[in-house]
Amino acid sequence: MGKFCEEVKELSIEIMGAITESLGLGRDYLSSRMDENGMQVMTVNCYPPCPDPETALGLPPHSDYSCITILLQNLAGLKIFDPMAHGGSGRWVAVPEVTGVLKVHIGDHVEVLSNGLYKSIVHKVTLNEENTRISLASLHSLGMDDKMSVPCELVTDENPVRYKESSFKDFLDFLVKNDISQGDRFIDTLRIKD
Question: Rounded to two decimals, what is the model's pTM?
């Protein structure tokens, strides 16, 4: 497990380098803030079989606070929300299971970093009637008090700052005061209203 954690952290820094490069910020824009000073939170989830999976959720709809989440799972059960489907009313889409493939979710802090060019993924976990689903999720972000903000390089008169800065500590404070099972999302508190 320790080796997996080390390797997936290295992968997260590579992926974040590609994201920051795509934004014109360079590959190393966040590397030191995510490598030795960053946070990696590992969660191991076990979802036992459920005789009536349509009446229960493994995890309610949410987006991850992190920059990115790298997920390994043994069975399908992940669904993502496509807000553009059905004429903009949206729909849930099952993520197909491909054995041994890691899935990468964009989190709230990449949405902030990109000033909305990348969107955090709203997702949920459904249960299986016959089999136990196990997942390993590795969430990667800046350090506890390190604030993610929109870089000045991405701000113009036509594209003003659209998000407040925030840290992992701010997210934990949000969790204490809000109920994510009721649809409360951290990213919604960071969007600057026009």
Answer: 0.92
